[in-house]
Specification:
Blueprint: E1 3-5, E2 8-10, E3 13-18, H1 22-39, E4 48-53, E5 58-63, E6 73-81, E7 88-90, H2 100-106, E8 111-113, H3 118-128, E9 132-134, H4 143-161, H5 168-190, H6 195-207, H7 212-221, H8 224-230, H9 236-252
Helix pairs in contact: 1-2, 3-4, 4-5, 5-6, 5-7, 7-9
Length: about 250
């Protein structure tokens, strides 16, 4: 049996309302931007939109101020498959559904996004930094912690942006490096050491990594544009990978 949920029709689904997270709102905002670009209209002309987050199993709905179907707002639901005829909507009237955060994004402001671990901080800051003001976890929010987190974000961003580290040996290299750099950072902060201790120890971490697979992968690309796009860089991990490839090329010659 089809059910109506904020002007959208759905079948074989159950919905449980949950809090709308900041990154769901940025997802809706991007969807609205896509609609505007396709239709050539303005924000006020977009009366509804929705954003699905497969990783969380949620769907977020937006209805504009002038919608005639339902009150304006933003609602997020966990969505479950169910047999036809057993569709259901469980609402929570205590959840804030105001469109204010979306309007703030439209005005060029960022939405505050708390994080509970450095991995969350890096993921949000990299993928949502244009729209979210990403807070560091509490125990990282110190002078040294902020400097180390900034360096980690440089490494994370550089590794994500280069095609070299998107698959195969490159993907494994990037995953291992970030994991080891985070472990190093945690040790530095727990021991009340400084950013410069972290900075120096990064080279020790890199020397413990077998760079042969990533060097070979860089060589196999055989494309100078990859070198041009990746270098110069502030990332020690990227620099080390390409230096290893250069050493291998020199040795082969």
């Amino acid at each position: 049996m089809a059910i109506q949920l904020h002007s959208f029709t759905s079948v074989r689904k159950r919905y449980v309302q949950v809090e709308t997270q900041p990154y769901y709102i940025t997802g809706v905002f991007r969807k609205i931007q896509q609609i505007i670009n396709v239709r050539g209209c303005d924000f006020v002309d977009v009366r509804s939109a929705y954003y699905e987050c497969p990783e969380d199993g949620t769907v977020t709905f937006y209805l504009a101020q002038d919608s005639e179907v339902d009150k304006p707002g933003i609602w997020t639901y966990l969505a479950y498959e169910c047999p036809e005829g057993q569709e259901k909507i469980e609402r929570d009237n205590l959840i804030d559904t105001r469109v204010t955060p979306l309007l703030n994004l439209l005005a060029g402001e960022k939405i505050l996004q708390p994080t509970t671990c450095i991995e969350e901080f890096l993921a949000y800051a990299y993928s949502q930094g244009d729209y979210l003001e990403v807070e560091l976890p509490y125990h990282w929010d110190t002078y040294e912690g902020r400097r180390i987190a900034e360096q980690l974000l440089i490494e994370f961003t550089a590794l994500r942006k280069s095609i070299v580290f998107a698959s195969g040996a490159g993907k494994k290299y990037a995953k291992d490096i970030i994991s080891r750099f985070i472990e190093l950072a945690v040790d530095v902060l727990e021991n009340d050491d400084s950013f410069w201790d972290f900075d120096a120890a990064q080279y020790n971490v890199l020397q413990q990594i077998d760079s042969t697979p990533i060097a070979r992968q860089i060589m196999e690309f055989n494309d100078y544009l990859i070198w041009q796009d990746a270098l110069p860089t502030k990332s020690k991990a990227v620099d080390y990978a390409f230096q290893s490839a250069l050493n291998m090329i020199t040795h082969v010659k």
